[in-house]
Amino acid sequence: MGIDTLMRRAVFLDRDGVLNRTTVREGVPYPPASPAELELLAGVPEALALLAQYNLLLIGVTNQPDVARGTQTRAAVEAINGRLVAQLPLQTVYTCYHDNADRCDCRKPQPGLLRQAAASYAIDLGRSFMVGDRWSDIVAGQAAGCRTFLLDQQYSQRQRCAPDFVVANLLEAANVIVQLQKVSTKDLR
Predict the structure, then answer these.
(1) Where are the domains of the chain?
(2) Whole-structure pTM over 0.85, yes or no?
(3) Is residue 137 pLDDT above 70, yes or no?
């Protein structure tokens, strides 16, 4: 068995706006402030269940700069992430707590979170997917070598990126990913 057969495929999922509802004020999406405010978007459990049937590793990747800005606590972010992992078939949620000025490699559009996950879980990034609702998610996914899906929102800034697929919601993205998996499996025969 070659090393390629040992590498796993994953779907990386932005958190706010992909898995859970955001509050949009003046064209900017804001995450829930606490686990009590967390509300899954319609179709998310079904989408992740479908992806899990195809043995795709499901990993959240999220920027949470409000921690660096002092308007959110790390504990609250981790509690929200923990609730998502408890409710959904997510392996984990990788989080960047930095702001733009920190110039870290983990804040999307940098691919650091995806690369960290790939190293920890033996993920083949070239056979994996990134689903996000903002241009920075798409650029991060592309920099990591993933196929990308943009959930098109008014705040997505679509002109700043060139996703492989533009979809309305996570369930639509999951259905396309499943079709791509079926095609890929046929190619192996």
Answers:
(1) 3-188
(2) yes
(3) yes
CA angle 123, 124, 127 (to 5 degrees): 125
Kindly indicate the confidence band of residue 187, based on its pLDDT and cuts at 50, 70 and 90. low
pLDDT, position 179: 96
Instruction: State the catalytic residues.
Output: 14, 16
Mean pLDDT of 26-51: 96
pLDDT score, position 183? 82
pLDDT of residue 185: 62
- Given the candidates 3.40.50.1000, 3.30.200.20, 3.40.50.150, 3.40.640.10, the CATH classification of the domain at 3-188 is 3.40.50.1000
Dihedral of CA 120/125/127/128: which sign?
Answer: positive
